[in-house]
Design brief:
By secondary structure, this protein is α+β, with helices and mostly antiparallel strands. It contains ten helices and 48 strands. The N and C termini lie far apart (122 Å).
């Protein structure tokens, strides 16, 4: 019975022992995985970081201290206390660690290590000792009785050291008989016995062996001895025979043969680069293979990853030099959308983080874009400009304009702070979206004593109410449909029987042949506003160039034809009027013209140049200020400013780089002192052409051809 109970107890103990061993083995396995990150014991571990922090520990006689798994014990007996040749023994013990077996070694503090000092024995110099993974520098502190305690300065150094391809510089490295060191694929160790030299000295050697165990180099462990091998320059700083430890100074040069995660790369990085561009620059040249991992259920996220640009990067360009791992960490620090994981030293996995948030942002962006498109449509509808003509009877055109102008506004569509399109006053500093500016304008038509108003429907309603109160005769006209008004472009060409020229789009070589000329140049252009009224109200005049005038009169509208009677007058062989003034202005320039009736001078300023692509018309245009009036004029167009008694012809307009920048050449002609509201014909003017033409929308028609030495061709085009 007793034997059976004892046997059962033995079985229970064995079972418990197996459980403890199993649990211990699992703990050791996990610890080994963590420890490998700094020992470099597996191929994909992180390289060892040199320049470790040095810590100091005091050790008194008979005491012990444990540092990073190594226990140092100062054994000091009564015999040592009475001795004059020893300070006891230092014993270092290491318990079993992942990749490192248990070990214990000691050495006596005696012999050449000591020196007789005032008050007793002392250490001759620092003692170096290494038991992986800790290197020690041992010194002594003294009092009036001799050595009071030892000071242990320690530095972490694993027995397996993995390097990057970077230049590391000069670093300390410990090697001992107890603990050899593996540097990359090489084994650095101290020889089992000293080597005898011809002078009789026996010196231990530092042996460097390759992965196959073959000797690659050896260096005597004598202070100051050095050796260069591969990327290393090794200098022996100290060798303590008693502790069997060498302290080396090692200069580690750059090694470009190392590839993968720890390879060295030097290249520029631009903040606008996508993930794919960044990795092609810094990872792939070092032999790193990129694995793109999609978010679960979203294969399109890979394309998102490749094209992603990190908004955190602020500098436009930066030059990086270092390992692939260090550079990628630096560039992607605080990255909100990407995860970079090293599968191995040569394989990098890239995956999205919180892709659901990305999808939500995309939906939000799409909704905002749709909302903004609706805002554009609403702006176009709500701020639609309509042009109407208001004939006046009882009040002057100047009075009507001064009444109407305070009611006029200008709005534009801009991008608000939250990305939404909003409507603001035109004076707001933000830029308009897609040129969406709605500006109400009032133009005084002196020829017909009418107000041409380009405004929103609500503004038209206000204007009708205002004008009806003042000009009662306006009421009947407003109740009916506003009369049609036609815009007719008149272009004057000068033909020559010699030379060549680039033909306008509305002329062909066959046309020139039928006209009997070989080349043409444009000498004048004007937009004539013609009312659909027979008689005096349906007549309009304009000046072409400096010496010619055109007069059009409405005849009839028989769709698709607009029938007009046109005539061209001019002073044959006469130059421009003697009192004309020509101004060449850059944007922002102001010039004064003199000779205007009732004024000493008149300021004319070029505000901006509008390129043809910025509006729906052909040819560049300019905005100018004449006194207090703002006028838009196109190249070769003549505009009358009766309030100041002048006509302005834009002889040339040149757009230059920059927003609305450029130059204009303007000819200012003074009207007669009577202040007639109509454009005047040149002195000694002669009727050159007169005919009736049938105009179709957008199609040019020739009015006729003069029988002069240099033929004049008048082209009329009905604009819609």
């Amino acid at each position: 019975m007793k034997k059976s109970a004892a046997f059962g107890l033995i079985l229970i103990c064995l079972f418990i022992t197996r459980m403890v061993r199993a649990e211990s083995a699992q703990t050791i396995k996990e610890f080994n995985r963590v420890f490998a990150q700094y020992t470099g014991s597996d191929s994909d571990s992180a390289p060892f970081e040199f320049h470790q922090e040095i810590t100091a520990h005091q050790l008194f006689r008979g005491d012990s201290v444990t540092i990073d798994g190594i226990t140092a014990n100062w054994e000091f007996t009564d015999r040592d206390r009475a001795s004059t040749s020893t300070l006891g023994r230092l014993r270092f013990t290491r318990k079993e660690q992942p990749g490192l077996p248990a070990a214990s070694t000691s050495f006596e503090l005696s012999g050449d290590m000591l020196v007789q000092r005032d008050g007793g024995l002392g250490l001759r110099e620092e003692i170096s000792f290494y038991l992986a993974p800790v290197g020690f520098e041992i010194t002594a502190e003294r009092d009036n009785k001799g050595i009071s305690n030892l000071v242990l300065q320690t530095m972490l150094q694993p027995d397996r050291i993995k390097l990057t391809g970077e230049l590391i510089g000069s670093v300390p490295l410990y090697v001992s008989r107890t603990s050899p060191v593996h540097v990359q694929q090489e084994r650095w160790s101290i020889s089992d016995r000293p080597k005898k030299y011809p002078d009789g000295k026996q010196i231990y050697q530092l042996e460097i062996r390759g992965g196959d165990g073959a000797m690659k180099a050896e260096i005597p462990l004598a202070d100051g001895a050095f050796l260069e091998i591969g990327r290393f320059r090794i200098v022996v700083e100290r060798y303590n025979v008693e502790s069997q430890t060498a302290r080396l100074g090692v200069l580690i040069k750059e090694d470009k043969s190392i590839k993968g995660r720890w390879g060295v790369i030097e290249a520029n990085f631009i903040s606008s680069w996508s993930t794919e561009k960044m990795l092609k620059t810094f990872a792939e040249p070092a032999g790193v293979r990129i694995v793109w991992e999609a978010a679960p259920g979203h294969p399109e996220s890979v394309e998102y990853l490749k094209n992603y640009i990190n908004p955190v990067n602020t500098s436009s360009q930066h030059r990086y030099q270092g390992t692939v791992d260090t550079i990628i960490k630096s560039i992607t620090e605080n990255d909100p959308a990407r995860r970079f994981e090293w599968v191995s030293d040569t394989q990098l996995k890239v995956s999205p983080t919180d892709y659901g948030k990305v999808l939500a942002e995309q939906d939000k962006k799409a909704a905002l874009e749709e909302e903004n498109q609706e805002a554009v449509k609403r702006f176009d509808a709500d701020y639609r400009l309509e042009t109407k003509i208001y004939p006046l009877r009882a009040i002057s055109i100047a009075t009507a304009k001064s009444i109407v102008e305070p009611e006029l506004h200008a709005y534009k569509l801009v991008n608000g702070r939250d990305g939404k399109y909003i409507v603001v006053q035109e004076t707001h500093p933000w830029a308009a979206i897609e040129g969406r500016i709605a500006r109400e304008t009032a133009i005084a038509d002196d020829k017909t004593n009418s107000l041409i108003l380009k405004a929103f429907p609500k503004t038209h309603e206000k204007v009708v109410a205002l004008l009806q109160k003042i000009d009662q005769s306006l009421a009947p006209a407003m109740s009916a449909e506003v009369p049609n008004r036609f815009q007719i472009e008149a272009i004057l060409l000068r033909g020559d029987k010699a030379g060549t020229s680039t033909l306008p789009s509305y002329l062909s070589a066959k046309d020139l042949e039928s006209l009997g000329v070989k080349s043409v140049t444009q000498t004048g252009r004007a937009i004539v506003s013609l009312a659909a009224e027979k008689g005096e109200l349906g007549r309009a005049k304009a000046t072409l160039g400096s010496s010619y005038g055109v007069e059009l009169s409405f005849q009839d509208l028989r769709k698709p034809y607009l029938i007009v009677r046109g005539s061209l007058t001019g002073a044959i062989g006469t130059a421009s009027a003697a009192n004309d003034q020509v101004l060449t202005l850059d944007v922002g320039n102001q010039r004064n013209v003199s000779g205007v009736s009732g004024l000493n001078y008149l300021a004319i300023t070029l505000d901006r140049v509008i390129e043809a692509r910025d509006h729906d018309k052909h040819g560049d245009a300019a905005e100018i200020e004449v006194g207090t009036k703002r006028i838009e004029i196109k190249e070769l167009e003549t505009v009358s400013v009766p309030i100041y008694g002048i006509e302005i012809t834009a002889e040339s307009i040149e757009a230059e780089p920059g927003p609305h920048n450029g130059r204009a050449r303007l000819r200012v002609r003074f009207l007669p002192e009577s202040g007639s509201s109509r454009s005047q014909e040149p002195a000694n003017s002669t009727m050159l052409l007169e005919n009736t033409v049938f105009l179709e929308p957008g199609k040019p028609a020739l009015l006729g051809l003069t029988n002069m030495r240099e033929a004049l061709i008048l082209v009329l085009k009905w604009q819609q």
